[in-house]
Amino acid sequence: MASKPSGCPCLATLVLFLVCSMASLQGAIAAGECGKTPISTAAVSLSPCLSAAGNAKAKVPPACCTKVGALIATAPKCLCAVLLSPLAKQAGINLGIAITIPKRCNIKKRPVGKKCGKYTVP
């Protein structure tokens, strides 16, 4: 005689619901100023900007402008988060100069007037 499976389909549904809820909660927790990208990864992607971030008269490399433009388009608050991060401080980034890079790159849709620390995006 075959035995009937015990339990109810409600239990399986409840477990599935809990697993899905946990996965979506983890995604929400992981999403920050740079979305799901860690700030350190976003900072490393901006490495072409190092020379321009320390010298207001330095020409901004095209690779830097491309990276900054893409970052502003996808996660505008991420640029400020990167510039205020401990990693930027360790790299010797001058926030007052670095905040001018979007303007120096002639990025039209930059967040003009937005505060980043004690500086405002020009």
UniProtKB/TrEMBL annotation:
The protein's organism comes out as Rhodamnia argentea
Identification of the protein by name: Non-specific lipid transfer protein GPI-anchored 15-like
Q: Which domain of life is it from?
A: Eukaryota
Lineage, highest ranks first: Eukaryota, Viridiplantae, Streptophyta, Embryophyta, Tracheophyta
Q: Which SMART domains match?
A: AAI
Q: Which UniProt keywords apply?
A: Signal
The residue ranges of the Bifunctional inhibitor/plant lipid transfer protein/seed storage helical domain are 34-116
InterPro entries attached here? Bifun_inhib/LTP/seed_sf, Bifunc_inhib/LTP/seed_store, DIR1-like
GN (gene name)? LOC115726303
Q: Which residues form the signal peptide?
A: 1-30
